[in-house]
Batch of 4 targets.
Target 1
Amino acid sequence: MLPRFEIVRRLRPVSLIARGAEADVSVGTPVPLPQLAPSVAIVVEPDHRAAAAFHLGGMWLGMSVVVGRVVLTLTEGHDTRELRSRRHGTVRSDPTRVALTLTGTHLTALTEEAGRWVARARVDLSDRLEPRDPEALSRLLVEGHGARVQAGRFGQLGLRDLRLVTSRDGSPVEDEGRLLLSATSAGPGFFDTGHTSVWSLDPDSLDLEHHSDLFFRRPDKPGVYGDHATHIVRDGDSWLVATSTWGDFEQHDPKRSVRATIARTSADVLSGVHVLETQELALPTDGFTSVGVWDPHLVHTGEEWLVGFASASKFFKFHPALASGPTLDRLTLRGAATDRRATEGTTILRVGDGWRVLASDGRDGRRGQRARYPMFDLAMAEVGELQAAYPTNLPWPTLAHTRCGWLMISFNGAPATGPLVGYGTHGDLVVQREVSRD
């Protein structure tokens, strides 16, 4: 029997450069800053000038603030193009810092005004450049003009898709008593600007600490991707990292799809930055239409693997499903709640002596299937409902039994950086504790 939960803390670790990855850069001089993935930022403290640029793949990708307007400049050979946002490009006050980020194929200029970052200009480089090319990233140069310049691996504007890092039996993996979590580090835009990160949370103080960032190579195409919606599992002496291929999702592509991949690695994924080689995690969708699958969650019961996931009949109409099998490459469908149309975050949890599947019914669901956490048996028949606060967006039901009792770790849809970049910059990490039954 699971308790009722209430919200006790919201956390929002916004950082354009990942903590610990900051490097001071000589002002006005291009310097090498090789990267493993297309996820990098330059932050400048202005003086009489405020500008930054990447040199990548034969192009000069720059930003500057000119008479209160933010300008992006793209130069290749003798061809130069300047881009300004008519609606969002005017700086409202003197910025305390300016920044240029490259996340996936997106170049974004931001200004820090009144203590918050605001996106002022953005361009998709996919028609001009392949930022995911490892060879080009190894020769990346950065430059900045101002009083002080720092650069490094991109951090995050928000966190979502939080999962416990677990052992194969589903129990949490801890680091000196701290819970380990995988998350999607939100970038300045839609899903293709995010990446996977690893964090730890103290169950007493609720202090949050960043540990690492993960990127992925695909089995069927070149490049390095910021895939996310990830579950990390300790399996013997190695790690299983199952993720969703959101890293190049194009919302308006009629052929768009998402699938699951998996990596097995002995690398220390709990620190630093890693690019992992993946293979397909084939999730069965027999008996219903599926244009994409995501949110893999893995548990071994001692007899078989269980894999929870979400499947979409179209974008965006989706429902939870469960597969099982003796190995992860021999899965068959166990059940699917195809009556849902806005339910994801499929999570397998041991409750008492048995297993339950939790999920999140979004606010676009049918009547009676909105803003709640349904609980299913292993045939995916609903058998109950988790009693907990339901923040905005589609918070996943991630639960851990700690020395302080049950803890629930989820997120909301609170955006960052203003309206220019649109959906995808969420959210706050939302912590709930069990309510005493007294």
Target 2
Amino acid sequence: MLQSLEALHTSGVYPKRDLTIVRGMGARVWDASGREYIDCVAGHGVANLGHCHPAVVAAVQKQAAQLITCPEIFHNDQRARLLALLTELAPGEMQRVFLCNSGAEAVEAALKFARISTGRSEIISTFRSFHGRTMGALTLTGQKKHRTPFEPLLPDVTQIPYNKTEALSAAISERTAAVILEVVQGEGGVRPADADYLRAAQRLCHENGTLLIFDEVQTGLGRTGKIFACEHYDLAPDMLCLAKSLAGGLPMGATLLGARVGTLPLGSHGSTFGGNPLTCAAALAVLAVLQAEKLPERAARLGEQLFDRLRAAHLPLVRAVRGQGLMIGIELKQKVTPLLQALQARGVLALPAGNTVLRLLPPLVISEVELEQVGEAVIEMLTGYQHAIN
């Protein structure tokens, strides 16, 4: 009944699984029939603190009874505290923040800020990247399947191979406003960047008066084992895009700005709902829990355990296991969709990252027992599927 009702009225742009989720707690969700699943989709990386974390629920309930909306033409207590905390946590010297509602919006803001700050129009992004589906973010996204139906897109965007310093050196010039990179490509197959490549990108940007933007919408806020993935390499971008898990499940994005980003003219950008007190209160609770419970460090430790287990299994269907922290990609020798269905039947929800990569994004609060169950289910599923096709 619920599925048919939703199918009747939905836009049609989302592929739907045969599953109606009605409740969540921690790393688990339940469907309409009461069946329980370990959630390694986590809202495409939104639920770093799991579902309905008590601290986030309490913050939202308290703030909802006090003040829900307040545009940025007025000051606000929750917003002020959040801006201060984000800049305190940020890598390098990032003292300004633009608040919005999503990762795509954070990227759109960075695109505008780069052009108006430098007076240049050219932007460099990479193949296989994913930065969002709005027109500017889509132009930066390096995947033809997303881009082609909507061309022509924005002009003056050049795409180059990822992790290739020579290609970046050849492409960047005094005409380049910004280079935008993911520290780990998520939708592009869970592909970490090489440390030397990222350091070269920062150097080349500085040499050419170009701004370096890191899209940490999926990798930020503890997912890779640090608050920000770029901290693994002691890097300081000029802009850093955040969203997904920032407000614990409520829609929020942020673009953090470094000193090399010039003064932004009044009225050059804005957001009706960006920085509203409700999402700011939720984000403050999220950041407090991340720090108090040392969730980034926990993600590093648990991720390494799962990596070791998957690699030690020597599964014939697996080409490679890669990622960082609790952002794990398993590259397969076949298409991933039927394997996601088989894993769901074993009580684990997971994601694709392209046609042949199985992606796991478990909540950072997942218990060690639950993570062992995930590893066991993945190994059993892949082993059983290999036997079935032999």
Target 3
Amino acid sequence: MEQLTTSIDGVKKATGLGITKIYELINEGKLDTVKVGKRTLVKVKSIYRLLEISDAK
């Protein structure tokens, strides 16, 4: 099964963006999130879309 979400730290590692910028993008609606308890998870597809990577699933 492919990974559907990742943590904020996972987004940081995958993109090289800082945490402040990641939360900015979330607040602007450019990254889609899911709340699970206190955790904020980012949908991997929205990362592909943001970076316009053609391999988006």
Target 4
Amino acid sequence: MVSRLTAGSGGTRDANNRTGIFLVDVFGNELLLHAEPPGCFNPTPLGPAVRPTVIPTRRDFQQAEGTFYVQDVYQGSFMSGVPRGTIKSLRVVESPEKRYWVPGSWGGQGVHHPGVNWHSFETKRILGTVPVEPDGSVHFSVPSDTFLYFQLLDEDGMMIQSMRSGTVVQSGETTGCIGCHDDRRSAPLLDGQQPVGMALSQAPHPMTGWRGTTETFNYMTEVQPVFDQHCASCHDYGQEAGETLNLAADRNLIFNTSYNELWRRGMIRVVGGGPAETQPAYAWGSHASRLVRVLRNEEPSHEPVKLSPDEFARVVTWIDLNGVFYPDYATSYPNHPGGRSPLDSAQISQLARLTGHDLGRQFHHGRNQGPLVSFDRPELSPILAGFDSVENPDYVQALEILRAGQAQLAQRPDVGMEGFRLSGIDLWREQKYQQRRQLESQFREAIRAGEKRYDEPVAEPSQ
């Protein structure tokens, strides 16, 4: 007979409703072993025990680097179909914290304040790419107190698998994992020959950024120039190819024409804000995107495209970073629709009345009619195509509203555009953030010195 021991108020009670320690068999029979008035509440059996080893602290409060390792990148859920030797490097990506928010929302996966990407809500910074050893191990240094995730890349720099959660390493800490999406209940691998992996026999690789910079990824400066050079002469407003896919750079109400089109027409396959389930290797990103097949001349219906290795890397990296657009959460238009539009609510309502288009749909990823507006070339805006004459008073008024938006962007560039400057509430928030960082640095210095320092009132930065 198999039995189990049940104890405490959360366990079994006898006919007199007493709580205690019971022996319960597989048939539900109960044998009371011990009870005491007024009740045996959560009893804990006591006996001799060896005191566990005290784990020393793993951080040093130096605000320096930590070290991370992966024992074998080929281990883990949905990695069994990836042949050994395929993964050449691991990319370390930071998802910076959000420090700015606005009343005007963009309907991505949920409601975002302001609009940042088509479907998701994060900015990305590539900290570096490190080699994967032949046995699948990796060893690298990363900034402490920084929210990071990792991506596995093939020989062409294209993502095979991506971590979709994140991790943080503390200053002076060494931590790691068994593999990619490894089972949390599994133990480190031991083969008797190389128990810790080849990478750990070497010094950790440093972070060196991406393309010589550690700036947050900006679609308009990294990706759009590739389309301007190779695609926009045909894929533009007024061109036949532009009717199928418009890759022009023109800014619209939230993003720009090419970004809108690539998402809307399914040219890229990324997870956006979901799903929550772990995705198989190669299931999304550059390997699964039609745009990459076109750029690699794998679709015979398209004219040959010849990109440099750097240009190709820009496009596939953008896709593998989940199709991001803005480099920051800051904005020049916090109180406008979507938190990005250079036109205010009254101007947008008037433009909708004049043209007959429901522009409210422009502020949600699932209800967009396409890029209806161009602030770079207002007269080419598709929203004006319904007018039969440029002499029509409604056309003239609508064009004036679009040109007002063009002038507004020239006067107050948005984040990611040349000339952007923090202002208003965002500038105040940034000043306050930097003050708090300075205090945190002083607190950690006190900890290192064995001193005490208490939080003091800080003068609010001026708005």
